[in-house]
Amino acid sequence: MSAHVASGDTSDVVVSRSPITGETLRTLASSSSDDVDRAIADAREAFDAWRVVPAPVRAGVVRRLGALLTEHKDDLAELVTLEAGKITSEARGEVQEMIDICEFAVGLSRQLYGKTMASERPGHRLMETWHPLGVVGVISAFNFPVAVWSWNTALALVCGDTVVWKPSDATPLTAVACAALLRRACVDVGADPAIHQLVQGSVAVGEQLTDDPRVALVSATGSVRMGRAIAPRVAARFGRCLLELGGNNAAIVAPSADLDLAVRGIVFSAAGTAGQRCTSLRRVIVASSIADELVDRVSAAYAQLRVGNPFEDGVLVGPLINANAFDTMQTALEKAQSDGGTVVFGGSRVGGSDGDSDAYYVTPAIVRMPAQTSVVEEETFAPILYVLTYEGLDEAVAMHNAVPQGLSSAIFTNDQREAERFLAADGSDCGIANVNIGTSGAEIGGAFGGEKETGGGRESGSDSWQAYMRRATNTINYSDQLPLAQGVDFG
Ligand code: UN1
């Protein structure tokens, strides 16, 4: 995603502002450099004791956090709507995603498996053990202000790490709420609350986490630009990075596709969350024979979408996060048109936002493009859906992969050959590849992340936990001989 604050910003306050009205909700103090230093030091100190607590016992904190999230689901969702502008159903879904990852992490605590390998030497055993890594710095974005934190934190805590969290400076109140719930979970189960530290601020705070050698892993979600700034700095100190950066997600719609299903999948992925998910659908690559019909049907569905206050029943598209997001969207639309594109639906600022208001509501846009020009290759964090056409599947796959990002992808087809081709080695080059389902709204059970400029990291389910631990390979000799590997003779 692409929200970014200018580098070197050292503002000493963080302003919580609601995109629903543009009003300031509250001003919080930013963490000073000393505060961040202390948070890292406290997390590092807490790690010494936390790493030797058995993982299934560590899971107690996460189990309790899951219970507290269940109890406070609606309240936390309300805060997410207020600060991030998500509709209530999606905000609740985001909190549900937190509850789900807590359950996953609790089960995982008994499954941090290492392998046992056959040794080539008699009387020897070869195995691997997974150990806690250290302090994990979590940098998260405004658009999933709570779920992405929980993916990282639930896994990190079960893995024996401690956490320092720098949330987006657009969503400081949801962060305070999450940190308070986790603190309470710690107190309730008798764990040291210092295992989690919250620091608030803008780029300077993130940079401090990035550069501090006590932070073993920097897990960052945000723009490609942010990832480019973080990765070399962490690499320079041989730290670890887990990057979840921009997406430019596409769906191929083949001639055999079930169009009812495709339209529903496209509309949710492209217009849902006002196009402000990393996984939002940004490109449709449709067979030319069905392109007009598909565009008509998606346009008709868009015409039914209510745009407005995300707290209101029936509203499906809330506001953009701020003026900058609106300007970026308008610039992209202008660029697309000057590249020969035609806006066939939406794109303009609408009701609830008069010229004076600092709230930005837009009708989701559909733009037919003659080719995949440079603006289509960029991730614009707003509801713009570019439509491109193809003749043969090879061409569609080539077009699909010809962007710098590689997060999520989909094909709508009822032809198994086409579906398998899309999922094969020479098919989609993304970290997520779906069949007959949109690009957004992944479950937590799978690994989440992508390739190329998306950064290569994997979070959430499957074996993503391994990024939060260090692996030790152990060779144990239980014989009275000392044979050397590879048949080496040393006297
Ligand atoms: C993000 O946009 O940063 O797959 C995360 C999805 C959500 C997570 C999105 N489960 O759309």
List the helices and strands and how they pair.
Blueprint: E1 13-17, E2 24-29, H1 33-50, H2 55-71, H3 73-84, H4 88-108, E3 116-117, E4 124-132, E5 135-139, H5 147-158, E6 162-166, H6 172-189, E7 196-198, H7 203-211, E8 215-221, H8 224-236, E9 240-244, E10 249-253, H9 259-271, E11 281-287, H10 291-304, E12 306-307, E13 315-317, H11 323-338, E14 342-345, E15 365-368, H12 374-377, E16 384-390, H13 393-401, E17 405-406, E18 408-412, H14 416-423, E19 432-435, E20 447-448, E21 451-452, E22 459-460, E23 469-477
Parallel strand pairs: 5-6, 5-8, 6-7, 8-9, 10-11, 10-18, 11-16, 12-13, 15-16, 18-19
Antiparallel strand pairs: 1-2, 3-4, 4-23, 14-15, 17-21, 20-22
The site of 2-aminohexanedioic acid has 11 residues, from loops.
Task: List key phrases describing it.
alpha/beta; single chain; 37% helix; binds 2-aminohexanedioic acid; 14 helices; 21% strand; 491 residues; 7-stranded mixed sheet
Describe this structure in words.
The protein has 491 residues and is of the alpha/beta class. Helix content is 37%, strand content 21%. The strands form seven sheets. Strands 14-15-16-11-10-18-19 form a seven-stranded mixed β-sheet, with helices on both faces. It has a five-stranded parallel β-sheet with strand order 7-6-5-8-9, sandwiched between helices. Strands 3-4-23 form a three-stranded antiparallel β-sheet, with no helix packed on it. Strand 18, helix 14 (416-423) and strand 19 (432-435) form a beta-alpha-beta unit. Helix 3 crosses helix 4, helix 4 runs parallel beside helix 5 and helix 9 (259-271) crosses helix 10. The structure holds 2-aminohexanedioic acid. The site of 2-aminohexanedioic acid has 11 residues, from loops. Homotetramer. Belongs to the aldehyde dehydrogenase family. It comes from Antrihabitans spumae.
